[in-house]
């Protein structure tokens, strides 16, 4: 079972790898203060560094789905829209 820090590290590595091909949107970072564990998954929202560090609203991402890390296995993936909607309905995203 991963602890929160290990899960965050896994999410960071997954996001870094996945975002390499995103062009101008590839400079992204996990928003640690918005991460949480739900249903055995560490849910890690992220956004563009220019938005997070400098408030550049033109660089804020839209429609980006958080990373989910299975805390039992360490496997990572992006959540799907159904999962995102369920979390939003509960006020978690």
Structural summary, described in words:
By secondary structure, the protein is α+β, with helices and mostly antiparallel strands. Helices cover 33% and strands 22% of the residues. A hairpin with a 5-residue loop joins β5 and β6 (76-78). The radius of gyration is 13 Å and the shape is globular.
Summarize the structure.
With 93 residues, this protein is α+β, with helices and mostly antiparallel strands. The protein contains 3 helices and 6 strands, in the order H-E-E-E-E-H-E-E-H.
Structural features:
single chain, 93 residues, alpha+beta, 4-stranded antiparallel β-sheet, two-stranded antiparallel ribbon, globular
Question: What is the topological layout?
Answer:
Blueprint: H1 4-19, E1 28-30, E2 36-38, E3 41-44, E4 46-48, H2 49-54, E5 67-70, E6 76-78, H3 81-89
Which ranges are low-confidence, i.e. pLDDT below 50, for 5 or more consecutive residues?
none
Quote the beta fraction.
15-25%
Structural class: alpha+beta
Rg over CA atoms, rounded to whole Å, is 13 Å
Sheet with most strands: strand arrangement: 2-3-5-6
Main sheet record:
4 strands, antiparallel
Sketch the topology as an H/E string, one letter per element: HEEEEHEEH
Please count the helical segments. 3
The overall strand count is: 6
Shape: globular
* Oligomerization status of the protein chains: single chain
Q: For the record, give the distance between the C-alpha atoms at the N and C termini, rounded to a whole number.
A: 24 Å
Task: Kindly state the percentage of residues in helix.
Answer: 25-40%
Mean pLDDT across every amino acid position: 96
């Amino acid at each position: 079972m991963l602890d929160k820090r290990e899960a965050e590290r896994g999410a960071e590595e997954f996001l870094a790898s996945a975002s390499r091909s995103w062009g101008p949107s590839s400079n992204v970072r996990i928003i640690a203060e918005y991460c949480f564990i739900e249903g055995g998954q560490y849910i890690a929202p992220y956004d563009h560094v220019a938005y997070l560090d400098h408030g550049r609203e033109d660089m804020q991402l839209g429609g980006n789905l958080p990373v989910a890390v299975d805390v039992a296995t360490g496997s990572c993936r992006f959540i799907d829209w159904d999962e995102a909607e369920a979390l939003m309905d509960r006020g978690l995203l």
